[in-house]
Amino acid sequence: MSVKHEPVAIGARPPASDVSPRVGLVGLATLFGWILVCRNWPAIVDAFALPGPHERLAGPYAALLSMVLVGLAMAAWSVLVEKVHRRPTTGIAWDDPRPLAGVVEISVTKIAGLWATWAAIACLYCLGRWYWDGQYLFAMEVFKAAAIPLVALSIPYVLWLDRCLVEPRDSAWHFGALLIGRDGWSAAEVKKHWRAWIIKGFFGAFMISILPGGFANVVNADIPAIIHNPGWLGGSLFELLFVIDVQIGAVGYLLTLRPFDAQIRSGNPFLAGWLAALMCYPPFVYGIISNDGVIGYEYNTADWAFWFQWHQALMWAWMVLLALLTAFYAWATVAFGIRFSNLTYRGVITNGPYRFTRHPAYLSKNLFWWGSTLPFFVTSHSLVDAVRNTFFLGCVSAIYYWRARTEEAHLLGEDAKYREYHAWMAEHGLITSRMRKAFSRVGRWRRPAGPLLQPAE
To answer: Which residue among 184, 207, 230 closes a domain?
Structure first.
């Protein structure tokens, strides 16, 4: 994973972000608006004499519609206001379309590749028993309903887009050419195609599967009952912030479209990156990080509210701290707008929480786990349990450090702008630069595989 790059000059400011912070804010406003509608639906029914249920809209389809509305709002803002479809990074030349007859052969090859990819992913869903149980059942129901419209709409979409693509022979074309025996396909492009679609298939199903639960809890939250209890209030705030993360994150996996400049430019090529990421998600997480897994860290533990219940002032302060960490985590997802996804390069984000640290989500998530679990406190009063829990939660944090390193190695090899950002953060990032200096003092700092960081003259 060690790759050498040319030295990078460090400027006074980080490079411009490829994603405007306003995109995520539009999505956030849309999400809050829809939650308010769902919570107040009985009053809306009364006010407008509407037919239908006289209850809050807290079901799975309300959660799904929330994601759709959030995605539409962010996509509309991106195209209508920020004109992202005009960026050269889309690879689209709108003003110089080809004749339809000139792209039909290319488009047919590409469609063959796409349809074969979707069929293979559907087969993998059928083989994975976990996809037909529990929360994944909802995702499978959504995919079954979307399958025929997706196949039908792919034909006019590909024909329309290929007329304007600067290079219509993309990775999907290369896979299609391999399948139907056309010359000119590249093995590297076929791998690129499959890395992107495995990411979409695996994480897309997971994100949709977890939409309903948190959304229902937020819509049904009894605010008067929880407002005076820091434990209950904290739990509801954490739930709301995780709903923000899930709703906007799910949009990112679905809207990987060139007209939004949100296409997956590459998937992580490092096996270590895939191992580090996949072990943090079902089904792999159940055998590794869950309480019954190899490094389960919650044996005989109780949460923060249990340990602080006799110290109200400390309990309120701890709740605020945990809420701020969760908000920082959600902010890291909102900053992506419609480009969030694991294991991918889709442009460089340098604003929002990414001005403080290169990995705000991983940092805040791990600090939240340490602060909420308090693994060194155990109800069994066993020193062995306390040591084991603390050690294994340290292992979980080490996995996320591993993920961060592999992601940096991927992005450093893809984009000179990221190398510039990486260098700037090492010197000026509020958190990153201080961590770097702290490690340097004890002689243990080693920069990730990447550029030799040099200050600008």
So the answer is: 207
- 129 half-sphere exposure, CB direction, 13 A CA radius: 1
Band (pLDDT 50/70/90 cuts) for residue 438 is confident
Give me the domain span that covers residue 237.
5-96+164-168+210-455
What span, in angstroms and rounded, lies between the C-alpha atoms of 137 and 143? Answer: 10
Q: 10 Å Cβ neighbour count for 32?
A: 12
Lowest mean pLDDT among 41-55, 68-82, 358-372, 391-405: 41-55
Q: Facing residues of 5 across strands?
A: 451
* Per-residue pLDDT, 445: 46
- Mean per-residue pLDDT, 423-445: 83
Q: Which of 326, 317, 393, 312 is nearest to 361 (CA)?
A: 326
Phi-psi region of 452 (alpha: psi -120 to 50; beta: other; left: phi over 0): beta
Q: Is the peptide bond before 283 cis (omega within 30 degrees of 0)?
A: yes
**CA end-to-end distance (rounded Å), the chain:** 30
Q: What is the pTM of this model?
A: 0.93
By the 8 A CB rule, do 120 and 183 touch? no
| Beta-strand relationship, 5-10 and 451-455 | parallel
Q: Based on the fold, state whether residues 427 and 324 are members of the same structural domain.
A: yes
β pairing state of 266-267 and 5-10: unpaired
Instruction: Give the count of domains, the chain.
Output: 2
